[in-house]
Specification:
- Pfam families: FUSC_2.
- Keywords: Cell membrane, Membrane, Transmembrane, Transmembrane helix.
- It is a multi-pass membrane protein.
- It comes from Adineta steineri.
- The structure is a single chain.
- With 852 residues, the protein is an all-alpha fold.
- The longest helix has 41 residues.
- It starts with a helix and ends in a 7-residue tail after the last helix.
- The radius of gyration is 32 Å and the shape is globular.
Length: 852
């Protein structure tokens, strides 16, 4: 390796650029990211401690321990997250400090009450001084600002991880492993034995779980952090000349990965249900080499997208053209196999099996959809400029719109009451003397509040464990080095390094900061001197924390409780409405494509195309946020006392299954939308193809008309969703139903007939599946009779088959077949979803199931 290449590698490692390029499992991994973050956290602590205690500022500042404490709290994984945290905290504490400074000089409150008010609202600590300095508020703000400033600098200079680079690293990782997952799925599809196929599918599922874990943060947190970073500038610095290949911004890269993931998961689902019969084996035998070549070409395209080396636009375009040529070859062989199958069917008199035709058409449509998505990465500059001009900007007044939210008002009142109760332990002399001023009781009440009861209980559990761990280390520091400042800092370094590493580990993100800051507050911040020695102070903090958390748990449940189970059920209702709205949109698009009889309505312009396409994108983003929130709420609900309102408690496993089924449902809807957009693209260029397809469908020679089925399905899905929404509404907690008058005006609980109505809906859905499968098989039988009739007239199959010499017609037929297959799959997923919901409400409202 040359010196320049070594320097480039070091720079990329230091700035966390292109992790995916390395073959090492140790240089670029989660382990390395956690070590780098631990180094940033320790560096922040040391710099803040030096500023607070080792410089001339220590003479002018009080309570210097708040500087390292605020720095450790503000430092986050990415620079964007750190900057966002610092800005939000600054926007809160600077106006608050000004208000409290004014209140202090109005002489409205006594000194002790002002100290209580200031710390309860802002610093969450009590300083035992009879006199408070006139500029105490600004001195404390200065401590926080210094700590936050050091945290931002450390996040930017010490092993910096920008959210922009983090998303690009995740995108590159996802692209590489989506390609790997795709290869496993194709290996399973090419297997002649079902058992061998299941082995490859098991590998694909392992990759899928890792991909979902990597993509979850990218969709929810990181996309919000990049707004504070100069993303385009960072991309140019990192990518260099590679910027000429593609003009996708960060959000478009994330959308690219999400879309690819949907289609690959659809391939996986089809392969998992594939029938490895004679038709499939014959198809695989003829497509083996072509699909292998297709996989190799796709891997080259993915490698070009994630490769750190410079590559010209012409080379990348040539790679894409090779991929398109490989797809055309696969489609050509697939078409010839179907024509050969028709000739064999005419000779033997066998029937065309609808299961084989539909599932394989769906599979090859997904391959084409993946290629089209990859080709969209080549954006022409003029098209990019057009898209930029079409973007809608928010009006200035939209940023200042205020909407009254009673849930937020009740949450604010609840917080005020809880803090007021905690202040009793500080204001009442008897309680203050008993609990040594009761500061940690108040702090425990203030820092363990959450949006829901389950969220607050989760915070309480994590905080209690963190304080216990931190207090034990604090006591060990006192026994080892006493109160010598520099020795305390040396002992704190390994502790902060450990919990800086653990902060990025799942389920430790809240516990680790508490455990890290507890020794700082105890060893550097305790101000009792000879009143309480360190050992007693540690025990005092544990005792008061337990009291504060226990009191907080009781108050959280009693005062305006917002239970996570209510929010979870409301979230599920919103998700079901989103899916139902997507079905209605798909039906509307299909109706425009195939059912308009007026010539003016048949011509669909580009603007209408863009308007239709716009419907699915925000719904997809909204859906992902709902699903992510559901997963969090399921974990929070598990800690709530659900036995008080459910017969058999809360079934986490059932709700986790419900989340997965909702995800499958939207994946199928995404696939249906892709089929319609593909057909619509042809209708814009050559409407005659669509018209011929519609006429052939009317003559029952090719396919059935799905309009009636989609209308019926939309109605059934609406009925099911409305019924399930009523289930979720009526099984919410009593407090929620009492606080919402419109629910009390309806019936207050489920009755046996409600569950029977769900059974009727499931039966109707099952009949819909059988009818769709039967109707399509009958269409195939009529098509067989048509081919036999033409054969008797001595007409060659290449002439009688309408798509034999027309690739566009064949492509549309495959797409419509994929649409039909997706419709059947959608009904089956809705049936599974309804069955899970039925089981959940039997568990929650009936005595059908009994424990031992």
């Amino acid at each position: 390796m040359t010196l320049s290449s070594i320097c480039r590698s070091v720079v990329k490692f230091y700035f966390n650029c292109h992790h995916v390029e390395s073959s090492s499992l140790y240089v670029h991994s989660a382990f390395t990211r956690r070590l780098q973050f631990a180094c940033r956290l320790v560096s922040t602590f040391l710099i803040c401690t030096f500023i607070g205690y080792g410089t001339s500022l220590s003479v002018h500042l009080s309570h210097q321990f708040m500087i390292p404490n605020s720095g450790v709290i503000c430092i986050q994984e990415t620079f964007g997250h750190t900057l966002s945290t610092a800005l939000h905290v600054s926007l809160a504490i600077i106006p608050l400090s000004i208000i409290l400074f004014i209140i202090q000089h109005l002489v409205v409150f006594q000194t002790r009450k002002l100290t209580l008010l200031f710390n309860a609202l802002f610093f969450l600590t009590i300083f035992n001084k009879e006199k408070v300095q006139s500029k105490l508020a600004f001195q404390l703000v200065a401590n926080y600002i210094i700590g936050m400033f050091v945290a931002v600098l450390a996040s930017m200079l010490i092993f910096p991880l920008f959210a922009t680079f983090d998303i690009e690293n995740r995108v590159n990782y996802c692209l590489l492993h989506i390609d790997q997952m795709h290869q496993f799925v194709l290996q399973a599809f090419l297997c002649e034995d079902e058992i061998k196929a299941q082995v490859s599918l098991a590998r694909a599922r392992v990759v899928e779980r890792r991909l979902h874990k990597t993509m979850s943060q990218m969709r929810t947190r990181l996309l919000d952090e990049i707004h504070l970073e100069p993303s385009r500038l960072l991309q140019r610095i990192c990518r260099g000349r590679k910027k000429t290949i593609t003009h996708l911004n960060i959000k478009e890269q994330a959308d690219l990965v999400i879309s690819l993931m949907f289609h690959v998961c659809s391939l996986q689902s089809m392969t998992n249900q594939c029938l490895f019969n004679k038709y499939h084996k014959n198809l695989v035998e003829k497509l083996q080499s072509n699909l292998t070549e297709f996989t190799a070409c796709q891997s080259k395209v993915i490698s070009a997208l994630i490769s750190p080396s410079s590559i010209t636009r012409e080379v990348f375009l040539h790679t894409l053209n090779n991929l398109q040529a490989a797809l055309d070859s696969v489609n050509s062989i697939y078409k010839q196999v179907r024509i050969d199958h028709i000739e064999e069917m005419i000779e033997t008199g066998a029937k065309i099996q609808s299961e084989d035709h539909l599932s394989h058409a769906f599979f090859f449509f997904q391959l084409g959809a993946i290629v089209r998505i990859l080709r969209q990465t080549m954006v022409i500059d003029s098209e990019l400029d057009t898209k930029k001009t079409m973007k809608q900007k928010k009006a200035f007044g939209d940023y200042f719109k205020f909407q009254l939210d009673w849930s937020k008002i009740s949450s604010a009142i609840k917080s005020m009451i809880i803090i007021g109760v905690g202040s009793i332990f500080v204001m009442v002399p008897t309680l203050a003397n008993t609990f040594a001023n009761g500061q940690w009781i108040l702090i425990g009440l203030c820092t363990t509040q959450g949006d829901t009861v389950g969220g607050a209980l989760t915070s309480m559990k994590m905080r209690l464990i963190g304080i216990l761990l931190g207090s034990m280390w604090s006591y060990a520091i006192y026994l080892a080095v006493g109160e010598v400042l520099y020795k305390i800092c040396v002992m704190l370094v390994p502790w902060l390094f450990l919990f800086g590493y653990l902060k990025l580990v799942s389920h430790w993100d809240f516990l680790a900061p508490v455990a890290a800051t507890t020794p700082i507050l105890i060893n550097l911040g305790q101000t009792y001197g000879d009143v309480l020695r360190e050992g007693n102070y540690v025990l005092l903090r544990i005792e008061e924390t337990i009291i504060g958390i226990g009191l907080g748990a009781i108050l959280t449940i009693l005062i305006f409780p917002t239970f996570a189970v209510d929010m979870l059920k409301k979230n599920i209702q919103d998700t079901l409405k989103t899916c139902c709205h997507a079905v209605e949109s798909i039906h509307s698009v299909y109706d425009h494509l195939f059912q308009q009889q007026d010539s003016k309505q048949q011509s669909i312009d580009v603007d209408q195309h863009e308007e239709t396409k716009f419907n699915i994108d925000p719904e997809r983003n909204h859906f992902h946020r709902l699903i992510t929130s559901q997963r969090t709420l399921v974990q929070s609900t598990a800690l709530e006392p659900s036995f008080l309102w459910f017969n058999y408690g809360f079934s986490s496993s059932r709700y986790h299954a419900l989340v997965l089924q909702q995800h499958d449902m939207f994946r199928i809807l995404h696939s249906m939308h892709a089929t319609l957009m593909y057909i619509k693209q042809y209708s814009l260029n050559d409407h005659k193809q669509i018209e011929d397809l519609r006429l052939n469908s009317t003559d029952a020679r090719i396919l059935l008309d799905l309009d009636v089925d989609l209308t019926d399905l939309s109605r059934q899905l609406n009925d099911c969703v409305n019924l399930w929404i009523s289930y979720f509404t009526l099984t919410k907690t009593t407090y929620y139903r009492w606080s919402h008058i419109h629910i009390l005006r309806k019936k207050s609980k489920l009755i046996k007939g409600d569950l029977s109505a769900n059974e009727d809906c499931l039966i109707e859905l099952h009949q819909t599946v059988l009818r769709l499968q039967t109707d399509y098989q009958q269409a195939m039988d009529r098509l067989t009779d048509y081919y036999i009739e033409k054969s008797a007239e001595k007409e060659e199959s290449s002439t009688s088959v309408p798509y034999a010499h027309n690739d566009q017609a064949d492509s549309i037929l495959v797409t419509v077949s994929a649409m039909y297959y997706s419709t059947i799959q959608l009904v089956q997923v809705v049936m599974a979803l309804g069955t899970t919901i039925h089981t959940i409400f039997e568990l929650e409202t009936t005595n059908v199931y009994r424990n031992f």
